[in-house]
Design goal:
Blueprint: H1 9-13, E1 28-31, H2 37-43, E2 50-53, E3 75-83, H3 93-107, E4 113-116, E5 120-123, E6 126-136, E7 145-153, H4 159-162, H5 172-176, H6 182-198, H7 205-215, E8 222-227, E9 230-239, E10 245-249, E11 254-257, E12 261-264
Parallel strand pairs: 1-2
Antiparallel strand pairs: 2-3, 3-7, 4-5, 5-6, 6-7, 8-9, 8-12, 9-10, 10-11
Helix pairs in contact: 3-6, 3-7
């Protein structure tokens, strides 16, 4: 059997479009193993740098969950991004990141996938990837807002590791029926993500809401909403200009949630 090619910066950049750079000085740091690529970039690296690991021993998901990160199968990647001033639409950043990933997945031939609010990547009601954005506290005079944007994508999650995941999940290779070139996929995601980040300060909400509607796997679906020990049900109407999800509850009232766990009803 052919040995799997480990991820490396030069193999990724060969798939970038001509003249594309993450940013002029940015480096792509590749590691065999880290605790978490988000943690590494919070403590190291410069604005625009990318950190990739083949394995994470303490990969983090949202809501304090663990992100299972077995060796040389999937994608675990983080990008450090710095904004000169706090962007007016910062609350939409994580949704924008999710959109940039689904667009990159379309480029490698995936169909029938989308975003599940706020920023899960879904295929047929199963999770394929997720995004974790963390703010960096810094006293930088040059940049008012610094963030680490981490994303994980199940490219070839082994069944043995997948047994430990507490929700329906799916891997890209299984869906496409081929071995996906992780270098190419990473190049597409980094290119798509960087373009969105560069434009983020001059953000067009109408365009964003239109894009979101095209990729939203929850719109019109019946869901359970879990928030601080409380549970409700309703139909998803979409998102508002602040990135809150709008849900029409059984009572007829439309409620907007900034943070909640949304589960699709079967
Ligand atoms: C989620 O859906 O809960 C978010 C998952 C984010 C996982 C990625 S993997 C790369 C980066 N490093 C981490 O520790 N977490 C993110």
């Amino acid at each position: 059997m052919k040995a799997k090619k480990s991820l490396s910066a030069s193999h990724i950049t060969q798939y970038f479009s001509p003249n594309f750079q993450v940013s002029s000085q940015a480096k792509i740091h590749c590691f065999a193993c880290l605790d978490s690529t988000n943690t590494w970039l919070k403590d190291n690296g410069e604005c625009g740098d990318v950190c990739i690991a083949e394995q994470q021993t303490a990969g983090r998901g949202r809501r304090g969950k663990q992100w299972l990160s077995p060796n040389v199968e999937n994608i675990y990647c983080s990008v450090k991004w710095c904004f000169k001033s706090v962007p007016a639409h910062l609350s939409l950043l994580s949704l924008v990141v999710g959109l940039s990933i689904v667009k990159a997945l379309e480029k490698i031939g995936l169909t029938e996938h989308g975003v599940k609010w706020p920023n899960d990547i879904f295929w047929h009601q199963q999770k394929m990837g997720g995004v974790l954005i963390e703010a960096i506290s810094s006293s930088s005079k040059k940049y008012e807002q610094q963030v680490v944007i981490g994303f994980g994508l199940n490219v070839n999650m082994p069944e043995s590791a997948g047994k430990l995941i507490d929700q329906p999940w799916v891997s890209l290779n299984n869906v496409l029926g081929v071995t996906v070139n992780r270098h190419q996929l990473l190049a597409y995601v980094l290119e798509s993500l960087t373009q969105e980040l560069r434009n983020f300060e001059a953000f067009n909400i109408q365009q964003f809401q239109h894009d979101w509607q095209c990729w939203d796997v929850l719109k019109g679906k019946e869901v359970r909403v879990l928030q601080e020990q409380q549970e409700g049900s309703g139909i998803v109407e979409g998102i508002d200009g602040q990135g809150r999800i709008a849900i029409k509850l059984i009572s007829g009232e439309v409620k907007y949630y900034t943070s909640a766990e949304i589960r699709l009803k079967k």
